[in-house]
From TrEMBL:
SUPFAM superfamilies: L domain-like
Gene Ontology CC: membrane
The UniProt record lists the keyword Membrane: yes
Recorded family membership: Belongs to the polygalacturonase-inhibiting protein family.
Name of the protein this chain belongs to: Leucine-rich repeat-containing N-terminal plant-type domain-containing protein
Occurrences of domain Leucine-rich repeat-containing N-terminal plant-type (ranges): 31-67
Length: 247
């Protein structure tokens, strides 16, 4: 009798556990679907996102990749004719995102500071859009970032020195914007950097000697700026380099 009751209690607690786990997963998926659909509703041309609807599970939507728990980890919407802003994208329900890839769309306005709250991002690519205004210095909070591509927009203001805190960064592309000021000396702290592309901006001042510290750098393009013409002796230390354009 006692064993039977114990078995009953054990299976009851197991059922409750399963039910709770399922409810939690369902909650996550519903919240992330809501968040993505809310952003979609702010876009002017979302015909490429026709699969984004409650009719199908979120993880099957165009451009969305999930982990085993059904959490959206990647949003890859390259060349998808997206017209609108990123203002409505941030939601805590999407905090598992590791990849935000929106290259070559028609996105406008400033880059919202709250994109820096996607703390798990490894890849952030907003290149080839029409973003204006500053690069949020709060991007320094993205401690797992390896690829940051904001090239081919209309961003202005300085390159935030705080980007030097992204110690895992391997690729930094800010070319073809309207960035001004100097190249921050602090960037020399990016020990894992392999690609640094700052071409065609309005950068001025000296080429920092700290750039000689990039032992992994294979690609350096700082052409098309107003930098002083003296090439620091220290650049001779860039032994991995295969491409350099300082013109
Ligand atoms: C989307 O943006 C492109 C480029 O800015 C523009 O030519 C097109 O008319 C826009 N489409 C809509 C629906 O706003
Ligand atoms: C809207 O996007 C579709 C493909 O996603 C594209 O064929 C169409 O030209 C776009 N319309 C406008 C007005 O931008
Ligand atoms: C994110 O930032 C944008 C632009 O500042 C703002 O409109 C939006 O309300 C913010 N989203 C959240 C969830 O705070
Ligand atoms: C570039 O930025 C400067 C200010 O730094 C501004 O005066 C100029 O209008 C901007 N140019 C473009 C094309 O946005
Ligand atoms: C460059 O390498 C030389 C040795 O070849 C070393 O003495 C110097 O400190 C290095 N400079 C930088 C900026 O790393």
């Amino acid at each position: 009798m006692a064993t039977q009751r114990m078995l009953f209690l054990m299976s009851l607690s197991l059922l409750l556990h399963l039910w709770a786990a399922e409810a939690a997963a369902g909650h996550t998926e519903e919240a992330q679907a809501q968040a993505l659909l809310r952003w979609k509703s702010t876009l002017l041309n979302s015909s490429s996102l026709s699969s984004w609807s409650y009719a199908a599970p979120t993880c099957s939507w165009y451009g969305v990749t999930c982990d085993d728990h059904g959490r959206a980890t990647q949003l890859r919407l390259t060349e998808s004719n997206l017209n609108g802003t990123l203002d409505a994208l941030y939601s805590v329900a999407l905090s598992s995102l590791t990849v935000l890839q929106l290259y070559d769309n028609n996105l406008i306005n400033t880059i919202p500071v709250n994109i820096s709250l996607f703390l798990n991002l490894v890849t952030l690519n907003l290149g080839g859009n029409n973003f204006v205004g500053p690069i949020p210095y709060q991007f320094s909070k993205l401690k797992h970032l390896t690829d940051l591509d904001l090239s081919i927009n209309m961003l202005s203001g300085p390159i935030p020195w705080s980007l030097s805190m992204l110690s895992t960064l391997e690729l930094l592309k800010l070319g073809q914007n309207n960035l001004s000021g100097g190249i921050p000396e602090e960037l020399g702290a990016l020990h894992s950097l392999e690609v640094l592309d700052l071409n065609s901006n309005s950068l001025c001042g000296p080429i920092p000697t700290s750039l000689g510290q990039f032992s992994m750098l294979v690609w350096l393009d700082i052409s098309g700026n107003h930098l002083s013409s003296t090439i620091p002796f220290e650049l001779g230390n860039l032994t991995s380099l295969v491409y350099i354009d300082l013109s």
